[in-house]
Every structure is written in C-alpha cells, then in structure tokens.
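Severity: low
Component: inverse-folding endpoint
Summary: output formatting inconsistent between runs
Steps to reproduce: submit the following structure tokens with default settings.
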C-alpha cells in the first residue's frame, strides 16, 4: 500500500510536469524506448511475467506524454534464439501514435538474447542520420549476453557529438549486475533506475518522463553518505522559505544533479536505505547558472557545542534542541560551561533560556542550526544585563514590601517578590522599567510607591524607596 501511495504521488507530479509540456508551443524531442524481449522476460514477479508487467507499465506511462510527443520503439531478442543481431526498429523516431506503441509492445513475445550494446548502437545510428536529439530509455531485466559493452558505445557516441540522454531501467536485476549499466547511464548524462517490481518500474518510468534531453542539465549536485558509504536518497528542492517544489532527484549512491535556476532553495534529503533515519533539511542553498554547486550530506551523527554567556562571561542556561517538527530531541543545562550535544545530522532550532536573568531578552530561539555528520558545530550566544537593587526603607531601615518590576513599553511584569529585611536584587536586561513597592501592614507603614529606572549593560543600579 505504501509503495502504491509513493507511485501515485510520483505519477501526479509527472502528470503536472507533462501537462505543462502539453501547453508549451515547442515540440518536445523524441523519446526512444529500447525494450527487452529476451527469454528471461518470461520470468515472474508476484504471479505476473516480467513481460506482462513491463508492457502494462510502459503502455500506461506513455498515455501521459504530450500529444505531439514523438515515441520510437526498438526491441531486441524477440525473433530468434541465440541471435546477437536480433534488434528491430518497431516504430520510427517520428512516430506520434501512442496506440501503436501499446499495440507493438503487447504483441512482442520474448525469445532470445540480450544485445544491449548493439541495441544502443542501432538507436544511435538513427540519431546520427536524423540529426535530432532524443531521450533514450533502455528497459532490461538482464546484463549483456553478447560480445559488447554498452558503456563504451555510449562514451564513443558522446565523443562524436551526438546529442542524447540515456536512462536505463534495470528490472529485477541482482546485486552486482549493474556496474556496466550504471556506467552507460552516467556516460549518457542520464540515470540508472533499479526497479524490483511493478511499483518500482512505474516510479522509474514516471521520473524518466520528467528527465528528458530537453530539460536543462543539472547545476546542483547532491551526494549522500552514511557511515562513510554513499547511500540512495530522495531529494526535494523548495524555493527558500516556502513549500513550493522547485525540483527533485534521487542519488542512487552517487552524485545526482538537479536543475535549479539561480536562486536560493531549501533542500530535503531523505535516505531510502534506512527508513528509521530522519531526513536532513538544508536551508538557504544558493545555485548558479554559471557554475555547478554541490551539497554533500552525511547522515552520520554530529555535535553542537553550545556556549552561553552574559556580558561575555560564562552563564548558566537551559538548552532545548528541537527538530523540524518542533519535537525536543536533546538539551540540558550549561552551568556556565560549554555544553556538548550529539545528534543525527540535520537542521534544528535551539532554545536557550538564561537562568537568574530577568527581562524580555532572557530567552532566545536560534533557528536553522545545522549539524553535519562527523563534525562539531559551535553555537555561541551572549545575553546582556545590568543589576537592579531595590531597597524599600522606613524609619531608617529596610522593611518588608511586595515588589513588582514592569517593562515600560510592553507593560510586562518581569520580576519582583518580597523584600523582607534585605531588599530585592536581580540581574536584568538593559531597558526601562517601572518599579512598584507596597509596604506590608506588619511593618507599620502603608501605601504604594512607584519609580521608573533605566538599566544599561554592565550597570549596577540601586533604587531606594523611603516611607
């Protein structure tokens, strides 16, 4: 059910992207599918043959293409057993009929070999003759079974100057079989997609639809690691400070590029290989139209080293660290010393509350504080204060009064209490305050007295009241 939800979300994003293409006056460049019809496509996944799954997904995917989208189709291994030249152009590069593609795919009967290099060469020959640029999508459930190296073919074509983007979808491949395919996709300025089942194949086809040769080349690279090893991660880019999606990509354990026009973005990077690890949010990433930029993300833990001071001297504070959802994930008390807090890599808010400090500036929230895996991030914050001593007197000695200190502009009470026979003394933020004292009846004195004082940083202020 979860995979279906992911697929539907991805499909909706693709449809929205493609619907924009439909409205565009430009004719999109051709997309050419190289379809696996080797004998192994009779293999089954969850009770359905891979041939049936691939045919259905491909037919459904092309329905969302622009009406003027040219769709070519090449198949291999469907006519003869053991023939490494069994590659056929079923539909030419200028075909615009989606029905013809669906009909052709459904009529294919898997039979023979897997000549990946020769299939790629056949398609590249079409581009060489037509002088068109195109997106090539190779769907295969196996590795090269003939004498060829598809990565070498793609590198040679690129060196020749032929303009294309190659995506490869590995359908049900085993671990360790994808090296040559990944090499070819990278050489072809495209991506390698690992599809384990129908949902994975659908996800890959959806992403392919938005990553055509017409899309500008990626200008921002993302590389994600965990415990020193590259991992597969999903990346979403948003215009800074909003939830307006600007692009996305998937790393597939390598540096993956996304095109983000020169601006400032917020990135969400979500690991796909460990669902228990929280995503990392990187704020304020600036891209450039002139050069490539990069974000290297580690999901290893890191540390905050938090130092809190008051008037530049160590000060006791409480610290609470909150994640992107506002959940407390760490904290403690500084006791006037530097406080070390270890957390997963990510972006956090840090709430610092000064102890024994009165006023309106005794609590601060520091937003967008980033921990990078394996590193220590220093966070320093300095409060400011003066001292205020309130001394109510009657008959030449200190008397017991209630005391209330009010910040003048906000009319907020920021401190007070009972003076007893010793007065009230407090550390307080710079500002202007109204002080109200009221003698208790037992003192033999009556009435409330009021005074206004201004406190400056580092100043010791005494305010006497005479009864």
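Observed output (run 2 of 3):
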């Amino acid at each position: 059910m979860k995979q279906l939800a992911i697929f539907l979300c991805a499909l909706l994003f693709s449809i929205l992207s493609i619907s924009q293409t439909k409205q565009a006056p430009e004719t999109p460049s051709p997309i050419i599918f190289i379809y696996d019809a080797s004998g192994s496509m009779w293999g089954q996944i969850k009770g359905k043959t891979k041939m049936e799954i691939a045919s259905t997904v491909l037919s459904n995917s092309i329905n969302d293409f622009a009406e003027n989208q040219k769709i070519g189709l090449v198949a291999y291994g469907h006519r003869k057993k053991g023939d490494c030249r069994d590659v056929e152009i079923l539909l030419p590069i200028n075909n615009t009929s989606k029905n013809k593609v669906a009909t052709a795919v459904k009529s294919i009967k898997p039979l023979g070999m897997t000549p990946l290099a020769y299939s790629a060469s056949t398609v590249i020959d079409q581009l060489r003759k037509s002088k068109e640029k195109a997106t090539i999508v190779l769907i295969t459930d196996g590795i090269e079974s003939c004498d060829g190296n598809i990565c070498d073919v793609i590198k040679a074509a690129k060196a020749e100057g032929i303009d294309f983007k190659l995506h490869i979808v590995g359908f049900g491949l085993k671990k360790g079989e994808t090296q040559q395919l990944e090499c070819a996709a990278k050489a072809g300025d495209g991506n390698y997609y690992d599809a384990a089942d129908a949902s994975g194949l659908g996800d890959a086809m959806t992403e392919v639809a938005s990553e055509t040769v017409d899309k500008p080349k990626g200008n921002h690279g993302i590389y994600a690691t965990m415990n020193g090893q590259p991992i597969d991660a999903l990346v979403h880019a948003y215009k800074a400070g909003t939830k307006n999606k600007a692009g996305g990509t998937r790393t597939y354990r390598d540096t993956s590029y996304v095109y983000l026009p020169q601006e400032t973005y917020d990135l969400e990077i979500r690991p796909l290989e460990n669902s228990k690890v929280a995503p990392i949010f990187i704020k304020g990433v600036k891209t450039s139209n002139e050069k490539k930029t990069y974000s290297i993300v580690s999901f290893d833990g890191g540390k905050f080293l938090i130092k809190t001071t008051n008037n530049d001297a160590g000060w006791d504070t409480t610290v609470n660290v909150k994640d992107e959802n506002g959940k407390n994930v760490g904290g403690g008390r500084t006791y006037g010393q530097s406080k070390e807090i270890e957390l997963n890599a990510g972006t956090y808010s840090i709430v610092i509350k000064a102890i024994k400090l009165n006023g309106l500036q005794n609590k601060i929230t520091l937003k967008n504080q980033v921990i990078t895996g394996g590193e220590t991030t220093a966070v320093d914050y300095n409060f400011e204060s003066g001292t205020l001593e309130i001394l109510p007197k009657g008959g030449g000695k200190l008397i017991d009064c209630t005391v209330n200190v009010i910040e003048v502009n906000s009319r907020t009470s920021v401190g007070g209490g009972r003076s007893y026979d010793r007065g009230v003394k407090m550390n307080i933020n710079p500002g202007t305050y109204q002080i109200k004292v009221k003698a208790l009846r037992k003192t033999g004195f009556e009435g409330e007295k009021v005074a206004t004082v201004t406190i400056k940083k580092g100043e010791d202020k005494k305010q006497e009241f005479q009864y």
